[in-house]
Design brief:
Blueprint lengths: L1 H18 L6 H9 L2 H12 L16 H17 L6 E10 L10 E10 L8 E8 L21 H14 L7 E7 L7 H12 L3 E8 L17 E5 L8 H11 L6 H16 L4 E5 L11 H6 L4 E6 L12 E3 L2 E3 L8 H20 L5 E6 L7 E6 L6 E10 L7 E5 L3 E4 L6 E9 L11 E3 L1
Parallel strand pairs: 3-4, 3-5, 5-8, 6-7, 11-17
Antiparallel strand pairs: 1-2, 2-4, 6-8, 9-10, 11-12, 12-15, 13-14, 13-16
Helix pairs in contact: 2-10, 3-5, 3-10, 4-5, 5-10, 8-10
Amino acid sequence: MKKITILILIFSVFQGIAQKTIQRDPVIEEMVAQISSDSLKAHINKLVTFGTRSTLSTTTDTKKGIGAARNWVLGRFQEFAKNSEGRMTAKIENWMLKPDGKRVDKEQEIGNVMGILKGTDPTDDRIFLVSGHIDSRNSNVMDREKDAPGANDDGSGTAVVIELARIMSKTKFPATVIFLVVSGEEQGLLGADYLSQKAFDEKWNIEAILNNDICGSNNSNETNIIDNTRIRIFSEGLPIYEIEKRASSIRNLGQENDGKARQVARYAKEIGERYVDNLEVVMVYRNDRFLRGGDHTPFVNRGFAAVRITEMNENYEHQHQDVRTEKGIRYGDLAEFMDFEYLRKNTAMNLATLSNLAKAPATPQNVTIDTKNLTNTSTLFWQAPKTGKVKGYYVLVRETYQPFWQKKIFTTKNGIVLPYSKDHYFFAVQAVSEDGNEGLPILPKVGM
């Protein structure tokens, strides 16, 4: 009887160990658990009550139009800031649009709403940014009067940002997180263009931008696919910014698939799938879709690592359409066509990625691979990050034709010799915090 009991105990212990196959930060796991589909639905239902949120609509009415909508988001951010122990501030950054002969027909006030959650480490100047656009549109992009509910495009992205601010504002992060709700997307990415230029001119150290646009519906027209288990993340491979200066090095090293945005996308896939059950993050090797554009692109064009997160199956009957019924088909971007459990999962993926980044150390410095000798091993060495308490480092390994990192090798040292040929593999190094949060990976430079 005693032997049987011991065997059962041993089996139970090993079974318990075997079941814990995913290591999750309990702080992030708790934040993910706080995301509510009901809360997201309430955010979107409120946004719809403003009638139209066209960038060209009224900014003086207290109940209708984009001005009232922006003020409501500002109020939500200010309410969340009360729970941040002074770390979070909120503002609307306004400026005037001039007529452009395209999608702005007269002078118009425009504004971006920003919630800034200041990092707790005064030496850490890194910024991680999550965005959605508040403006909506009808079939006619110049229609500033008729109701344009914009529940999914981009009430969903705006709701993601609001929900993240609600939850993350209560937590301390070494790095700064910006919750951004932009205007002017439908008129030509105007709000994102304004802020990306400002960030470029002022040399903001933005390390990653997660732009959420149309991420709350699970079905497509024409193909009639229904699936709430997959979300797309678009990212560029070759960096458009200063490509002429970097093309030779990229070509020589074969790094066409390793731009900064592509690394952020890989990171979001790994971390998002770690924390969110029944969700696959599908990487798309393009900056964006055909015939469309998103607010990440002005940032990409200025050299920032920005990606677009969007639903897997878009329904064009519910985008850029007047609300109406024709031949039995209901058109219009209405909340009734959304899947709020799907939106919850997509919000959770954003939160896990953003929190893991903001808790992690900065990237290691001077990461180098030794190429001065012909060897069948590969030697990498690096220096500690500028900021962050480091427990160790992961060295990432993948064969040159593989899309994702295949191995993660942990070390507490500042160098490693690997039994993998530098001719056949790509490598990267990421710093790991004391809590186990991995930073963004950085590829080595060639050392002679």
